Please model this.
Amino acid sequence: MVKPLPITFDFATWTQLVPESEIRRLLRFKVRYYFAGGKPGVLPTEALSNTLIELGKYCLQLIGEGERGRVIEVFNYCPTEGVKELRETFANLLRERDGLDVCWEDITITTGSQQAIYAILDVLLNPGDVVIIPRPAYLGFVNAATKFMANIVTVPMTEQGIDPEHVRKAIRLSSEKFNRRPDLIYVIPDSDNPSGTTMPLKRREELFEVALDEGVLIV
Ligand SMILES: Cc1ncc(COP(=O)(O)O)c(C=O)c1O
Model:
């Protein structure tokens, strides 16, 4: 039996504001396909294992050479934005593969995309700011936006992702209803969670144009 705690406490108010997960609600029904959790079935297992072995060998070699201090450096805190070499690797990838004009200082490493979502909303949103999201949207984003007390305007998801014209209407709605322009549009252009949709290039370009026209960030 679980023993009650000897003190009582309240959870933070925002925890009461988070709506029930629509996906979990759907899971009460028997479904053929399970879209609730993103759990990659394909991972570079050998490459990841070999990297760990290489790192271990490198550290043992340093210890053998009396360089324990450098090993402590390897496992210690790193700069908040991430290790420079890793940031450079990602910047090179984005430049060479995607033709993006970025340098390593534009890159920040996080422990996952959920941390990135929190960090982005943390620095962009004041209570009452407006965000545009698809309906349905990834719950981790909805919960984070709720926590930062954002007003959420939704646009319907279609088979080709969100429709940029719906986004334009949502921006107008935001001005009418909340008297302010939205701060950002949240979109997952590839393999959206939970809908699984991927936006065709033309739609992405149209969405980009709408965001540029209206001065709204795309996350
Ligand atoms: C769309 C989306 N964003 C973010 C996350 C969280 O990812 P991470 O584990 O990298 O924090 C998930 C996990 O399922 C996801 O589906």
Q: What stands out?
A: The radius of gyration is 22 Å. Residues 45-76 form one domain.
